[in-house]
# Entry
Amino acid sequence: MSSSPPSNPDIERNTDPGLAADQQPSPAADASVALSDPVVQASFRRALRLIVIMGVVGSALLAVTAGWQTALLFLVGAAVSFTGIREWRNITDVVFDRFSSAPRYKPAVRTFVMFFLRLGLVAALLYVSLKYLKGNVYALVAGLGLAVVVLSMETVRLLRRRS
# Structure
């Protein structure tokens, strides 16, 4: 009795019966087929929504427990996380557009200029926040870490969806 791997409707395998087993396309190559622009954009939207929710709830809890300055530091970190994910979403738009069969001609130069402008603004915002807000700096770090947390959650979600 042969056991075949579970089928995934999102992934269409390209196997050639004339090729040896070690010459067949790798499962990783097949998995990349399912990682399309709509899938990535939906993941980014969910991540942005999660950052907003976690940022608001976390800052409200911190305002009650640790004071308004600590809550504001957390909110600043969450805002930086939010804008970071938005910028990376714009960059992926440009990359997907370049490799697309029907390009939409997203302005790559504008996207990358805005990316570096955002970096400068983030640096200024972090400097001002750390200099003038006397809250707990770990709240700022936690807010900055929200991007890592929600993107990790989205990665796990995508991996579970494929298996």
About this structure: DSSP finds five helices and no strands in the chain. Confidence is low (pLDDT under 50) at residues 1-16, 25-33.
